[in-house]
Amino acid sequence: MTSLQIEKPLASADHGHLLKGKKIAVFGVANKWSIAWAITQSLSKAGAQIVLTYIDERTEEKVRDLAKTLHHPLILPCDVTQDDQIETVFSKIKHEFGTLDGLIHAIAFARKEELEGHFSSTTREGFRIALDVSAYSLIALARAAAPLMENGGSIVTLTYLGGKRVIPNYNVMGVAKAALECSVKYLAGDLGEKNIRVNAISAGPITTLAARGISGFQQLLKHNADRAPLRRNVDAEEVGDTALYLCSPLSRGVTGEILYVDAGYHIVGM
Ligand code: NAD
Ligand code: IMJ
């Protein structure tokens, strides 16, 4: 390491017992690169018992394999576009766990053809799908989870700067993230009286399944690292540890917030 490179402090944070006895459901693990998996590991290391959901049978095997490293996980199917599947997931969680303390929403989808070319070419159906999967699903999951959060709770979603600024090719996903971030505020307003907090983490670009194959992604990674105050990109573990903070009592006074984990990129003007 040269003197110009800045070593990441706390590369292996002590997760302690911040979430001992807490039960947290994580939506959005697809593989070992998923941000949801890094979050799961941070929460699990802090003592949380985990519910993992998977979208389809193709993903089930990968998720079950990853879950072997967890302590007594509950693993359930859930395609968030299907109301009956959401209902079934939470009735099974109620049956197995009784209550819930946290919910992680790390889900986004738009048709591939919407994530290239002109934003003005966005189709009605492409808009509907992106907003349904990536934004409405948070509202549906929060509504189903809230009755199980008898002792209060923490709901955390994942967003991206493309919901606030124009980022090449992000297109309709930017509109979906804007709706998601605003939903975080309205849900925080709604659920605060039950001591349920709702926050979003706005992560910098990370190479996951949802980022691979996006044209210009490598260029964007370099652009971000060159300009960010910390002069680097972030990794999924740093997002995981921020989710741990948001699920723990350390953040008990924080709700309706968009917390940037992007090496500071979003503050830079030039
Ligand atoms: P990922 O592909 O690993 O995760 C996306 C997940 O969404 C997958 O597990 C997929 O199965 C799930 N999903 C899609 N449609 C679904 C449906 N109908 N029902 C249930 N699940 C569904 O990629 P990721 O980068 O870990 O993405 C997680 C979250 O992080 C997303 O909200 C994404 O927008 C956000 N995010 C990612 C980055 C990045 O650069 N990777 C940056 C900021 C925010
Ligand atoms: C996604 C598209 C365009 C630009 C992008 C991204 N940039 C970043 C992402 C700059 C960082 C990743 N991201 C933040 C996402 O939210 C990705 C969502 C996504 C990705 C895909 C790829 C495969 C597909 N549909 C998708 N839907 C949503 O078919």
Structure keywords:
single chain, 270 residues, alpha/beta, Rossmann fold, 7-stranded parallel sheet, 7 helices, disordered N terminus, binds nicotinamide-adenine-dinucleotide, binds ligand IMJ
Write the layout of secondary structure elements.
Elements: E1 23-27, H1 35-45, E2 49-54, H2 57-67, E3 74-77, H3 83-97, E4 102-105, H4 124-145, E5 153-159, H5 171-191, E6 196-203, H6 217-227, H7 236-247, E7 258-261
Parallel strand pairs: 1-2, 1-4, 2-3, 4-5, 5-6, 6-7
Bound molecules: nicotinamide-adenine-dinucleotide and ligand IMJ.
Ligand IMJ binds near residues 108, 110, 112, 160 and 211.
- The main sheet orders its strands as 3-2-1-4-5-6-7
CATH H level, superfamily name? NAD(P)-binding Rossmann-like Domain
Q: Which compounds are bound in this model?
A: nicotinamide-adenine-dinucleotide, ligand IMJ
Instruction: Calculate the mean pLDDT score and round it.
Output: 95
State the share of residues found in helices, binned by percent.
Answer: 25-40%
DSSP helix count?
Answer: 7
**Backbone shape:** globular
What is the domain tally? 1
- For this entry, what is the oligomeric state of its chains? single chain
Percent strand:
5-15%
The helix-and-strand class reads alpha/beta
Gross CATH architecture: 3-Layer(aba) Sandwich
Radius of gyration: 18 Å
Number of strands: 7
Q: Terminal Cα separation, in Å?
A: 27 Å
CATH topology value: Rossmann fold
* Parts with pLDDT < 50 across at least 5 consecutive residues: 1-6
SSE order: EHEHEHEHEHEHHE
The CATH C-level name is Alpha Beta
Sheet bearing the most strands, described?
A: 7 strands, parallel
